Amino acid sequence: MNKTSTLDPRGGVAVITGAASGIGAALALQLAGRGCHLALVDVNPGALQAVADQARGLGVEVSHHVLDLASVDAAASLLAAVVDAHGRATLLVNNAGVALGGNFGQVAAADFDWLMRINFGAVVQLTRAFLPLLQQAPAAQIVNISSIFGIIAPPGQTAYCASKFALRGFSESLRHELEASGSSVGMTLVHPGGVRTGIAENARLPAGASAAQISEGRAQARRMLRLSPEAAAARILRGIEGREPRVLVGGDAVGAAWMQRLFPVSYWQRLARKLAGRTAKPAPTTA
């Protein structure tokens, strides 16, 4: 079956993980505004319920599923619940993700493995579970939310970068397989830059981290996470509708990707100097 060049979400069913906040919530509401039915997934029941209620107010069918994606049976149970609630799926958005602060020597092996299970392992499991269902649709799309840290690898992010680079390799290889087979299912890989979500504030921290390290790390994240989730979701939705194979979200992501391409070994030294100059400037005041 040949893949169409565009995807109209109207009347489809989108499965979105990490849908209770940030990019996931914004994308859910924008898809609902396009007339797309939703199966929303998150570990936070209260916030997930609120997003689901907002989406229902836009006139679409919404199911919501409280699920810990670190669980070994999460994918199978979600597939069964989505089939029971909707009978089909046309869009799988693997958006859920967690962060882990600290240098590699500080990070406990159990914490490293926990992050990999959610950021990478769960995506593989969900893709394996949902791909046969997606293939039943005339046109369907898998959307994997990686990060600019799936293209560049700054210090202090060994676990997170490992998961996002793995997700990039998995997604690109799977895209090539789907294209070669003439599948109706497409693949969109998304690399957001600094988006104002709660992932940095909610990052798991190593036991030895000092209060000063934690405070400075979170302050730096607040300075760098500038793009709104709504703006990020709008760009991702255009990529979904256009079935784009890769989407860079934000000018910082575009710039960092080019820097890595031009200077594949020394990009971080160059970006770090630029970042140091930017963060040294006083924050703008508002009236």
**Helical segment count:** 9
Which topology does CATH recognise? Answer: Rossmann fold
Strand content: 5-15%
Tally the beta strands.
7
Distance between the termini: 57 Å
Tell me, briefly, the overall form: globular
Evaluate the radius of gyration. 19 Å
Could you describe the largest sheet, including whether it forms a barrel?
A: 7 strands, parallel
Kindly give the count of domains: 1
Q: Kindly report the spatial arrangement of strands forming the biggest sheet.
A: 3-2-1-4-5-6-7
Q: What is the share of helical residues?
A: 40-55%
Elements, N to C (H/E): EHEHEHEHEHEHHEHH
Calculate the mean pLDDT score and round it. 89
What is the CATH class name?
Answer: Alpha Beta
Class from secondary-structure proportions? alpha/beta
Which spans of ≥5 residues are poorly predicted at pLDDT below 50?
Answer: 280-287
Could you give a quick summary of the protein structure above?
The chain is α/β, with parallel strands linked by helices.
SSE diagram, text form:
Layout: E1 13-17, H1 22-33, E2 37-42, H2 45-56, E3 62-66, H3 74-86, E4 91-94, H4 109-134, E5 140-145, H5 158-181, E6 185-192, H6 211-224, H7 229-241, E7 246-249, H8 251-262, H9 267-280
Parallel strand pairs: 1-2, 1-4, 2-3, 4-5, 5-6, 6-7
